[in-house]
Amino acid sequence: MPEIAEVETVRNTLKNKILNKKIKEVKIIYPKIIETNLDEFKKVMKGNTFHDIKRIGKYLIFELDNHYLISHLRMEGKYFLKNSNEEILKHEHLIFTFTDNTDMRYHDTRKFGRMALVLKENLYDYEGIKKQGIEPIDDKLSKEYLYDKFKNKSIPMKTLLLDQTIISGLGNIYADEVLFEAQVNPFKLGKDITLSECAKIKSASKKIILKAIEEGGTTIRSYTSSLGVTGRFQQYLCVHKQEGKPCKICKTIIKKAKVNGRSTYYCEKCQNVK
Ligand SMILES: [Zn+2]
Predict the structure, then answer these.
(1) 114-119 and 67-72 as β-strands: parallel, antiparallel, unpaired?
(2) Can you give the residue range of the structural domain that contains 243?
(3) What is the number of domains present in the chain?
(4) Which of 44, 149, 194, 218 is most buried by a 10 A CB count?
């Protein structure tokens, strides 16, 4: 599942390829991907131009003339850039054809991804966007903010780090890595966390996400950005998917457990798990 660093990589790659291209035609093959009324969607997209691509948390935000196209890739959503005369593949659900006869194709084997069109002034009224917390790379993320969000919650830290309304953009991979880097127990409840642990989580989030973006994200399992970019952060993973291997710091064997249904990887010594 693409997290902040992978979505950022998709954004940077697409930006180099599609900006200022004019959309000649939109072909909707699997309409459920689109939350907006289909006639309106087609009407707005036809003749429009992608002027910029922004990102809020895990959302890609394509800037059009008067609208934003909001895209969430969820589990397996990907964009492919192809020539328009290439055969349409099974999992290509939405095709934007540009006037230069190239396509941007949305491909999603699981069909969980979603797109919506909003007027520019309504971007922050969109449900998913409105609720986003602060990003790890945003200087506004402070230890006091985190402490305030965690302090009353009887919820494990691993689950709290996945809560997009607190820190925006972390998913299962980076939440594990952040907790290891910060030496925080993933099972510890929010209400038991200290201000100094919040300071460590803040620094660890920023450090790990900046490094992951620099490395083009993490390519594991089936997720690749599809745009010819293979992430390199997997070689820096300390705990995620590393069960059975020795901790890079203390050599204790990395363990795997479920926290609220999500696989969680940790070093019981470094992260003080009793
Ligand atoms: Zn360790």
Answers:
(1) antiparallel
(2) 143-266
(3) 2
(4) 218
Catalytic (active site) residue 2? yes
Could you tell me if residue 57 is left (phi over 0), alpha (psi between -120 and 50 degrees) or otherwise beta? left
DSSP readout, 100-140? TSEEEEEE-SS---EEEEEEGGGGGGSHHHHT--B-TT-TT
Ligand 1 mean position, distance from CA 247 (Å)? 5
- Residue 161, C-beta contacts closer than 8 angstroms, at least 6 positions apart: 167, 170, 175, 178, 179, 201
Q: What spacing in Å lies between the alpha carbon of 271 and ligand 1's midpoint?
A: 7
Could you say which of 151, 248, 262, 269 is catalytic?
262
Ligand 1: centre distance to CA 170 (Å): 22
d(CA 220, CA 241): 9
pTM score of the predicted model: 0.89
To the query of whether residue 262 is one of the catalytic residues in this protein, the response is yes
Of 6, 8, 58, 186, the catalytic one is 58
Each residue of 169-215: pLDDT tens digit? 999 999 999 999 999 999 999 999 999 999 999 999 999 999 999 99
